Amino acid sequence: MATSALNIQKLLALVLLATTTSAVNVPLALAPASEAPVIAAAHVSLSIEGDRWTSWSGTTSGNQFFYNLLDNIKQITGHAPNLRIGADSEDVAMYHSDVNFQQATFPNSTVITPYPEANSLVVGDSYYQTIRFMPPGTHVTWGVNLGANNLTAAYLQTRAIANTFNSPAVKNAGIVLDHIEIGNEPDFYPSRGYRKGNWTAADYVENWTAFANNVSVAAGITPASHTKFMACSFASIDAGLSPTRAFDAGLVNSTSGKLISTISQHMYSGAFCSGGDFLLQGLMDKYTIRSNLTTLVPDIRETRARGLQYVLGETNSYACHGAPGVSNTAGAALWQIDYSLYALQLGVSKLFFHQGIGYKYNMIQPAPLNWSSTTDAPLSPPQAPHIQPQYYAALVVAEAIGMSTTTRVAEVFVDSAVVTGYAFYEKEQLVRAVFVNLNGYFNASAPRGSVHLDLAFAGQGVQGPAAVSVKRLAIDYASDVAGLTWGGQTYETADGRVAGQLNMTTGPVSAGVDIWDSEAILLSFQ
Ligand SMILES: *[C@@H]1O[C@H](CO)[C@@H](O)[C@H](O)[C@H]1NC(C)=O
Ligand SMILES: *[C@@H]1O[C@H](CO)[C@@H](O)[C@H](O)[C@H]1NC(C)=O
Ligand SMILES: *[C@@H]1O[C@H](CO)[C@@H](O)[C@H](O)[C@H]1NC(C)=O
Ligand SMILES: *[C@@H]1O[C@H](CO)[C@@H](O)[C@H](O)[C@H]1NC(C)=O
Ligand SMILES: *[C@@H]1O[C@H](CO)[C@@H](O)[C@H](O)[C@H]1NC(C)=O
Ligand SMILES: *[C@@H]1O[C@H](CO)[C@@H](O)[C@H](O)[C@H]1NC(C)=O
Ligand SMILES: *[C@@H]1O[C@H](CO)[C@@H](O)[C@H](O)[C@H]1NC(C)=O
Ligand SMILES: *[C@@H]1O[C@H](CO)[C@@H](O)[C@H](O)[C@H]1NC(C)=O
Ligand SMILES: *[C@@H]1O[C@H](CO)[C@@H](O)[C@H](O)[C@H]1NC(C)=O
Ligand SMILES: *[C@@H]1O[C@H](CO)[C@@H](O)[C@H](O)[C@H]1NC(C)=O
């Protein structure tokens, strides 16, 4: 008996070693804790570099590929992702009534930055009016120029934006302007040559208020209007300006300051501006994600204490358009799922993932690429419009949210250094859960590990659901740049619509669920 038990133990140990499977108990509360936040349908939204906006939207007709990808999300949650348009380009942009769509000049491409941002941009009314091609009901934030310190320029842009959103084509489609943002990353203005080196929070507030006094009138922003201001948009929490410092300098004290509904901060996990070697596992790391995001907590508290929303108005993996082999991979999709949902737990009410034509960290490449976004090598023929792995992250989060506008999310305690989890509640009842295994699986040199999740319900006297269906974001290797499937289906199609047979498996909750290294799963309870 003793010997055979020992043998079985040895055998078990061998099996465990061979497949590196471990098991964890996962407590799932059947009802949400009181502090579990509501998740917005557009929690995962897009920030779009303004210099090539019409490559996203289309000019005389809409860009159907981009439309379809936004509409896919809308079909899942009822809302297309929100769009924030501008970024660095917003402080370069000038308005001119004679310009058809846009005129931009770009620096030469380099290996580090194959698609640099425009060094000049002039836009006309038709540039803004292409917003009418977005899915009906899309919510928009548009940036105007503060960097140039030219009130007339900001005024003319604002007037063109206001005319656009008051036009019948846009109004009838229910496309609404949530915010105007005055200036992008003003904490970086001295280094960008837009302001003198001793530019302080008080200077920012003075400038912002002077512009907002004008812009609010030009845009019809009042205490009663839907449109409000998104303010701050700071690049870094350590470049001298912060939401808290801006509040202390009186940002929300003025009449215009009271028209701010949302404070925006930007965040990246690092920067590829001068290149460098970044490891994918360094990005997809449970503790880095937590330590990066928790640095925002003091400003989130100050913001929410004033009754304002706090968003990451521009974010993604590594600044300056991403790092090759990291930002454009399946691993980055896993990072995005955990990053988005963990940020919500801290009080971030939306994340605008930054996108530009040919940027490495995009979810979507909506236009043909004439040269490589990772190596700068010419592509002949051009690479057709396509999605990148992070688009699947948006799909996973959208399906977890579902059609309810009051879905609440709580982080699930998973006693693992690599697996993270979130429980989703509708009408106070557990309906779904997302788990992400951030352990990188890079090649077949070793067997792929997995973690067995033993699901244990916690709740008051009620029996939990008996069955669970599992939908998998299947990834061959964390470094893959394509070929992912979501429930067996692909979105890597010419028109951006889903293809293939849906494949989900259903089993008893008591059997638990396995999650492979470098995989995300969506559980739906029945
Ligand atoms: C950009 O590239 C063109 C053509 O290769 C070259 O003539 C020009 O000098 C380059 N400009 C800069 C600023 O490097
Ligand atoms: C805003 O600025 C423009 C251009 O300088 C000016 O014509 C307009 O009167 C200003 N409006 C307000 C309300 O300050
Ligand atoms: C300010 O912007 C207006 C409108 O674009 C432009 O006509 C004017 O030249 C600009 N002023 C300066 C000093 O650049
Ligand atoms: C800011 O810098 C300018 C020159 O760069 C100088 O004239 C001014 O006195 C400085 N202001 C403060 C408050 O230091
Ligand atoms: C913005 O700030 C700069 C320097 O900080 C100042 O010279 C300029 O007058 C300000 N602009 C407005 C419209 O207040
Ligand atoms: C802004 O208003 C608050 C609340 O009334 C006040 O405590 C604070 O001193 C004001 N700040 C500035 C810079 O005026
Ligand atoms: C995020 O984490 C990375 C890796 O530890 C670190 O280099 C970076 O400074 C962090 N960023 C912030 C804003 O905490
Ligand atoms: C790619 O080439 C096409 C055809 O010449 C051109 O219309 C398009 O603007 C180019 N794309 C970029 C991003 O430069
Ligand atoms: C395979 O992946 C492991 C990490 O999981 C790495 O150490 C090793 O270098 C990789 N081998 C190859 C051939 O890429
Ligand atoms: C469906 O998914 C399961 C689990 O990932 C897999 O074992 C099975 O082969 C898939 N079936 C089909 C028809 O693809």
From TrEMBL:
Residues 421-522 form the Beta-glucuronidase C-terminal domain. The keyword Plastid does not apply. Keywords: Signal. Pfam families: Glyco_hydro_79C (PF16862). It comes from the Eukaryota. Residues 1-23 form the signal peptide. The keyword Signal applies. This is Beta-glucuronidase C-terminal domain-containing protein. It comes from Sphagnurus paluster. The lineage of its organism: Eukaryota, Fungi, Dikarya, Basidiomycota, Agaricomycotina.
